[in-house]
Amino acid sequence: MLLQIPDVLDAELLAQHQHALAQADWIDGRATAGYQSARAKDNRQLPEDSRLARQLGGAILAALEKNALFVSAALPRKVFPPLFNRYEDGQAFGTHVDNAIRSVPGSVERIRTDLSATLFLSPPEDYEGGELSIEDSYGLQHVKLPAGHMILYPATSLHHVRPVTRGVRIASFFWIQSMVRDDGKRTLLFDLDTAIQRLNQESPGSASAIQLTGVYHNLLRRWADV
Q1: Contact, 2 vs 156, CB < 8 A?
Q2: Strand locations in 15-163, DSSP E?
Q3: Which of 181, 163, 170 is CA-nearest to residue 93?
Q4: Residues in CB range of 2: below 8 A, 6 or more apart
Q5: Each residue of 209-220: pLDDT tens digit?
């Protein structure tokens, strides 16, 4: 499932992130890449353990907890602390697949990367290029979203970031371990949840909505890993 989630950050929170990141100190992005990815990666990144990264990442996690669309689609069990990257002057990230397991810095915790997420922080008119290109079952999808919007996609997908030829592209990226690790099952649950919500709006308190809600929770009970 490839899903756009609009307005993860409201205007005030987005402006705070943009202001702070415009003054940040950036390091070589290869510091957090695996062996194969490091060979394809050319960007800058906030240090994972920096106070600013933790502060901004915490605000993103708080916003995601209140985002019903994200919760319905991802069914999150764990979310990796958000990271931040910067592309300019022709920088790009070649085709790669994300590591299956990520260790959380400063802890013994590990996260299985079922889903990848990119939260765009730069307005698309501020830079040229920089599209996130994702290979899925419908072919190659090129994603360039308004600032504050996020793309959610299976971490098993091959993907790359096209060269930024003008301006600066800043984004946050992170991974999610879902309660339901199989993408096909997650997609079925998301579609069912969406249909139930629509039915509740059209026919509040309908017997069909109640029955389908029971089906949803019984499937989640069968498939969830908690």
Answers
A1: no
A2: 27-28, 41-42, 44-45, 76-79, 83-88, 92-96, 101-103, 110-112, 115-120, 127-129, 132-136, 139-143, 150-154, 159-161
A3: 163
A4: 134, 136, 141, 151, 152, 153
A5: 999 999 999 999
Q: How close are the terminal C-alpha atoms of the chain, in Å? A: 21
Q: Which pairing describes strands 132-136 and 159-161: parallel, antiparallel, or unpaired?
A: antiparallel
- Write down the pTM of the prediction: 0.94
Name residue 207's amino acid: A
Provide the CA 64 distance to its chain's centre, in angstroms: 10
- Per-residue pLDDT of 51-90, as tens digits, reads 999 999 999 999 999 999 999 999 999 999 999 999 999 9
Tokens in use for 178?
Answer: 């879902």
d(Cα 75, Cα 51) in Å, to the nearest integer? 28
Taking the C-alpha atoms of residue 21 and residue 220, their distance in angstroms, rounded to an integer, is 39
